[in-house]
Design brief:
By secondary structure, this protein is an alpha/beta fold. The protein is built from 15 helices and 13 strands. Strands 1, 2, 3, 4 and 5 form a five-stranded mixed beta sheet that branches. Strand 1, helix 2 and strand 2 form a beta-alpha-beta unit. The longest helix has 17 residues. The two termini are about 45 Å apart.
Length: about 425
């Protein structure tokens, strides 16, 4: 199956793109791509040049445009209201679509220009034949909802666009063909691991596990198929365990790829029939799994991709001593989140510890604590002396240490040695 870029800005996307048509086509051919789209912002200036160059190179050209959509009507021009346009990608499916896209872009300049050439939903509805609609960049309604973590709002907006334009809405997981596509992963697993005992799959809306479970159970019904959700977003877990399809009031997890309030109706039915069990894992367990994958497998996994490994590491499923495949489904994790996840994973695995010790504020105390830590074989990476807490005696202070440790056993050894020498351990926290 080939890959085709469907969102590409060329040199004709004024002030938005730098890809020259010739080198763009050459690079696509070098990569073995058989099709390529052009979706410049608000214009089609490069369509003809792109078409000719692509055809000459044996690449199928897909003509498109990332249009600007007015919040109200395209002729409305109230400052602070009508300049809050959104983005939408339109691709030509056929010649009718090409004629409609040419008309829309022309009308945007002729009647809708207000800072940018804009169309509106009413015009798009009248000229939607032959067009394929994508959600656009981060300035689109649907991506904005996704970035807020509000997947229900994203879905609602997609359905609304479908009703406004008459186009076909392809559900991201509750769709037979999407599920069938996901099922190819199950076929590949069986092909590579014919003596498999169990497969563990992350679960959000249920598309991935539905496809994998259907494929595996159809060929090898004795193989166990387990699902894993985040504790903060257990929509499918609750639905299956309570035998009632349901929507959660709220969800919260850094594993945003499976942060779903409502599972699919079709996927719920498939999971009821083919999935052996679904369990949940905590945020800390997921963080520890991400760290383990980085250290042991040299893989960077996002939270949603790491939950199957977390379920194994923390013995949530009866798979000990069995041949198990964990589906690590993605590596799209923010660097700042990754930093926090690594820290949390180190704490969970006993490789890092924070300790707060109440001390008499006099010479030699810090030295004694450092000697105890050194004697136990740990390394101090930070020290904070706090004498400002209003709830402690004036002659006392808090000594806050961050330590590098081998494991939880060494942490307990340090705590015991500190207590033995008369030091009061106030708290131990991340």
């Amino acid at each position: 199956m080939g890959f085709a870029h469907l969102h590409v800005h060329s040199e004709y996307s004024l002030l938005d793109g730098a890809c020259r048509i010739g080198p763009l086509i050459e690079r696509a051919k070098e990569l073995g791509q058989t099709a390529l789209a052009i979706t410049d912002h608000g214009v089609m200036y490069g369509a003809v040049a792109f078409y000719k160059a692509a055809v000459a190179a044996g690449i199928r050209p897909i003509i498109g445009c990332e249009v600007y959509v007015a919040p109200r009507g395209m002729t409305d021009r109230v400052h602070g209201v009508d300049d809050a346009y959104t983005h939408l990608i339109l691709l030509c499916r056929d010649e009718t679509g090409y004629h409609n896209l040419c008309y829309l872009v022309s009308a945007a300049f002729e009647r809708g220009f207000y800072g940018k050439p804009r169309i509106d939903w009413s015009l798009l509805h009248k000229h939607a034949d032959g067009l394929i609609c994508l959600s656009g960049c981060v300035a689109g309604d649907i991506p904005r909802a996704v970035l807020r973590g509000d997947y229900e709002a994203a879905k609602a907006r997609a359905v609304e666009l479908q009703e406004q334009t008459g186009m076909t809405f392809i559900h991201p997981y509750d769709d037979e063909q999407v599920i069938a596509g996901q099922g190819t992963i199950g076929l590949e697993i069986l092909d590579q691991l014919p003596d498999l005992d169990a497969v563990i799959v992350p679960v959000g809306g249920g598309g991935l596990i539905s496809g994998v479970a259907f494929a595996i159970k159809s060929l090898r019904p004795e193989v166990k198929v387990y699902g894993v959700q985040a504790e903060g977003a257990p929509s499918m877990y609750r639905s299956l365990h309570e035998h009632k399809y349901q929507t959660l009031k709220a969800v919260s997890t850094f594993a945003d790829g499976i942060q779903v309030k409502t599972p699919g109706e079709l996927t719920y039915q498939i999971c009821e029939q083919y999935v052996d069990d679904i369990v949940t894992v905590s945020e800390d367990e997921t963080a520890a799994a991400i760290l383990s994958l980085m250290e042991n497998q040299k893989l960077v996994a996002e939270g949603a991709g790491a939950v199957p490994v977390a379920a194994v590491l923390f013995h949530k499923l009866p798979v000990e001593g069995k041949k198990v495949a964990c589906v690590v489904s993605g590596g799209n994790i923010d660097v700042n989140i990754l930093n926090r996840v690594i820290t949390r994973g180190l704490v969970m695995s006993g490789r890092k510890a924070n300790m707060t010790i109440a001390l008499e504020d006099r010479p030699g105390q810090l030295k004694k604590v450092a000697e105890i830590v050194s004697r136990c074989g740990s390394n101090v990476v930070s020290v904070q002396h706090d004498g400002s807490d209003p709830n402690m005696p004036i002659s006392s202070c808090f000594l806050k240490l961050t330590l590098e440790t081998r494991d939880a056993e060494q942490i307990e050894q340090i705590r015991a040695e500190l207590a033995k020498e008369g030091f009061q351990l106030v708290s131990e926290r991340v």
